[in-house]
Amino acid sequence: MSDDDLDNDLVRAAQAGQDHASAFLVSRFGPRVLGYCRSIATDLTDVDHERIVELAIENAVRKIDRFDPNRGKFGTWIRTFVLHAVQDWRRGHARLVSLDDEERRISEPATDAVGAVLTEANLTTTTEEGPSEHVRQLVAAVNEALPKLRTTDQLIITMRDIEGRSVEETAASLKIRPDACRQRHHRARVRLMDVLRSDPRCAIFLPGDTA
Amino acid sequence: MNNNDALARLHELFDEDPLDEQHDEHDRDGVIDELVDDALLQADLLSLSQETQELLLGLTESSSSLEPLTRKRLVGAADRGMARRRDDASPLPRLLFVIRNRDNQELEMVAASVNVEYGMLRAIERGECDIRVLGAGGVASWIQFFGVPADTAIPALRATFALAADPDRASASATETLLAEQDKFVDEVSEILNNA
Fold it and tell me: In degrees rounded to 5, what are phi and psi of residue B8?
């Protein structure tokens, strides 16, 4: 039996509500999830990493019914929870550190390409109720656009923009020069924008380009 | 895929897409790029192609040993996740009871806030009365009072009806077929929640 089969058995046990699955999930994924958290949040402390991984594991297990093995591995899926837990952690701490910055962001609305005000109500990603409908649409469009890109574009966007790794860290992992990393990242973003422009859901964000 | 295999495959792919000798970085559109940046932060890694996922795991795999105390805390977190998953799968009245209990709220205060008679809400919470007596608006208000997201509340409401159809079972699936009028009621509640 392969590792993937073992992982899928374990996930099925958790989905069936078998309590013993908790300990096995932690044995199997805990070290990798903690290692991943440390690698994408190098500025945080070990105590922070452990707390973030706790939150990520709790949320992942809570939503384990939504995991579909046909879309990828559980190891990839749980990384998404770590990423979101890191972002929540940073947002929570940023609020504590500086409420002033938040007030400034709200009082200085951005403008879109045709000059209309992109209001807090329709675009912000951080309202108390969660992301606005427009932002949800953009996230859905991005999720659909990513797999349409070249593998290397997906990879470099993931490492730079989704995981937040620096140019130097990304270049080191990919064994390429930092300037090559910058160029490949830039091209990948241009291609991503091209795909998004063809998506009607992005018309409000990329006006004039959508058919 | 191990790290060496992933690197070899990656550089094959890079060779198929060589870099430009002259590379001019165009200015990025600040506002639009920030929005896409925000959207990317909420992206789902499972939306990546299978090959990208394999390469990502192969290139960025890192592991940290777990101290016994850390392992204990992580197992505790997984156990809490299992318990919350069970709560999420509860029929709606039980789900809202669990949240009320956790938040230490008096039922009388909840009833007054959602404009429902206390005795009626108590009977519904105990499973002694059909939830539909509240009407779709009343059920939506009850859900909104506790801030339960629609994607949690609606399956719970469906489970309420499925369980009512066969109360001898310990649990019901939120995907079971409901009677037409129950389906209609669920749709009405869902519409109110989604339009709120």
Answer: -60, -45
Mutation to test the B interface, candidates A19, A162, A166, A176, most B Cβ within 10 Å: A162
pLDDT of residue A157: 97
* CB–CB contact A19 B79 (8 Å): yes
* Structural domain that includes position B90: 80-195
Same domain? B85 vs B40: no
pLDDT tens profile A111-145: 443 333 333 334 444 444 556 677 888 999 999 99
Residue A34, Ramachandran bin (φ over 0: left; ψ between -120 and 50: alpha; else beta): alpha
Judge if B113 and B152 occupy the same domain: yes
- What pLDDT, in 10s, does the model give residues A179-203? 999 999 999 999 999 999 888 888 8
Structurally, chain B folds into a number of domains equal to: 2
* B126 shares a domain with B52: no
Q: Determine contact: B13 vs chain A, CB below 8 A.
A: yes
pLDDT at A117: 36
Q: What is the predicted ipTM?
A: 0.81
What are the φ/ψ torsions at residue B39 (nearest 5 degrees)?
-65, -40
Does residue B71 sit within a domain?
no
- Percentage, residues of chain A above pLDDT 90: 60
Question: CA-based angle A159:A164:A167, to the nearest 5?
Answer: 70
Is residue B70 in some structural domain?
A: no
Residues 89-148 of B with CB under 8 A from A: none
Residues 6+ apart with CB under 8 A from A201: A137, A138, A140, A141
Judge whether B172 lies within some domain. yes
Q: Which residue in B has a C-alpha nearest to residue A35's C-alpha? A: B63
Asked whether residue A208 carries a pLDDT value surpassing 70, the answer given is no
| Ordered domains of chain A (ranges, CATH) | 1-108 (1.10.1740.10), 109-205 (1.10.10.10)
| B contacts of A10 (beta carbons < 8 Å) | none
